[in-house]
Amino acid sequence: MSPDDELAPLPTAELHLHIEGTLEPELAVALAARNRVRLRFDGPEELRRAYRFSDLQSFLDLYYELMAVLQRPEDFTDLAEAYLRTAAAQGVRHAEVFVDPQAHLARGVPLEVVFEGLGEAFATAEERHGVSVALIPCFLRERDPAEAEELLPRLLRYRPLVIGIGLVSAETGRPPELFERVFARAADEGLHRVAHAGEEGPAEYVTAALDHLGIERVDHGIRSMEDPSVVARLRAEQVPLTVCPLSNVALRGVDRLADHPLKAMLDAGLAATVNSDDPAYFGGYLHDNVAAVTRALGLTLDERRRLAENSWRASFLPAAERDRHL
Ligand code: HPA
Ligand code: ZN
């Protein structure tokens, strides 16, 4: 087996992927032209040069700005379609995809446009790309929790495509407990619950998200490694963590891939998975992330198999379907 074969993609579930973060510069420019939206960038090359960040907020500013090109259902369909094509080539066989409804509502794009547009691509994804898809709308933590509570019933209409809720955006100063009520309601409705925690925020936000929001997976969670008691709990309860290595380097949470805690997480017995977060912005899709950490951290084929297996165990697929992949 050549080193390249060893690095061939393994069938994997992608569990941490923001659909708006798959907006490649070329598509952003094409959609801007189609919708007559003026961008402050002169073409895809200039835009690509702007995909450089100093922290999470500097990324979020551009990420929200570029959403302006997404106006009509077909824009969301084209965005999802482009992601599915690339993801399939990178070994993704199932994706639980995040979307930010409040970011679209705030700029006057109705929920129907977002969900019908995405739903169009997702309905045939299995048949055309061999990828099954579910959606997890995420609440923006900088906005009023009351707005999330009002939005929840409207999201329920998009079941069974919608399978859960998440919590995203800048963590600092916005502890998970603010969103306790909407997460409790979502649990009563039988929805799954996840939250970004311990990305830039401290390890105690991971504990708070588990205790107050009842989350079933931690998105990112890398700063858990700073607190041995949190690590011990994540290990004992086998709470899955959706780790996104290229994102952590791009947003300067980790200096270099060689310093990334992923291997330490595996060594500590945590249920870590590798995912792509916002691949158009951070330099790579799922297998690009796996290949990069494999090289930087010297992961073995067994460790890569463990990451793929963890992704299936951590997915929200019905048990019979999930077990087909194990
Ligand atoms: N972190 C927090 N919120 C986000 C991200 C992220 O990496 N991407 C899109 N929303
Ligand atoms: Zn994310």
Automatic annotation (TrEMBL):
<feature type="binding site">
    <location>
        <position position="18"/>
    </location>
    <ligand>
        <name>Zn(2+)</name>
    </ligand>
</feature>
<keyword id="KW-0479">Metal-binding</keyword>
<dbReference type="GO" id="GO:0043103">
    <property type="term" value="P:hypoxanthine salvage"/>
</dbReference>
<dbReference type="GO" id="GO:0000034">
    <property type="term" value="F:adenine deaminase activity"/>
</dbReference>
<dbReference type="InterPro" id="IPR006330">
    <property type="entry name" value="Ado/ade_deaminase"/>
</dbReference>
<feature type="binding site">
    <location>
        <position position="16"/>
    </location>
    <ligand>
        <name>Zn(2+)</name>
    </ligand>
</feature>
<feature type="site" description="Important for catalytic activity">
    <location>
        <position position="220"/>
    </location>
</feature>
<feature type="binding site">
    <location>
        <position position="278"/>
    </location>
    <ligand>
        <name>substrate</name>
    </ligand>
</feature>
<feature type="binding site">
    <location>
        <position position="277"/>
    </location>
    <ligand>
        <name>Zn(2+)</name>
    </ligand>
</feature>
<dbReference type="Pfam" id="PF00962">
    <property type="entry name" value="A_deaminase"/>
</dbReference>
<dbReference type="InterPro" id="IPR032466">
    <property type="entry name" value="Metal_Hydrolase"/>
</dbReference>
<protein>
    <recommendedName>
        <fullName>Adenine deaminase</fullName>
        <ecNumber>3.5.4.2</ecNumber>
    </recommendedName>
</protein>
<dbReference type="GO" id="GO:0008270">
    <property type="term" value="F:zinc ion binding"/>
</dbReference>
<dbReference type="GO" id="GO:0009117">
    <property type="term" value="P:nucleotide metabolic process"/>
</dbReference>
<dbReference type="GO" id="GO:0006146">
    <property type="term" value="P:adenine catabolic process"/>
</dbReference>
<feature type="active site" description="Proton donor">
    <location>
        <position position="199"/>
    </location>
</feature>
<feature type="domain" description="Adenosine deaminase">
    <location>
        <begin position="11"/>
        <end position="326"/>
    </location>
</feature>
<comment type="similarity">
    <text>Belongs to the metallo-dependent hydrolases superfamily. Adenosine and AMP deaminases family. Adenine deaminase type 2 subfamily.</text>
</comment>
<feature type="binding site">
    <location>
        <position position="196"/>
    </location>
    <ligand>
        <name>Zn(2+)</name>
    </ligand>
</feature>
<dbReference type="InterPro" id="IPR028892">
    <property type="entry name" value="ADE"/>
</dbReference>
<dbReference type="GO" id="GO:0005829">
    <property type="term" value="C:cytosol"/>
</dbReference>
<keyword id="KW-0378">Hydrolase</keyword>
<keyword id="KW-0546">Nucleotide metabolism</keyword>
<keyword id="KW-0862">Zinc</keyword>
<dbReference type="InterPro" id="IPR001365">
    <property type="entry name" value="A_deaminase_dom"/>
</dbReference>
<comment type="function">
    <text>Catalyzes the hydrolytic deamination of adenine to hypoxanthine. Plays an important role in the purine salvage pathway and in nitrogen catabolism.</text>
</comment>
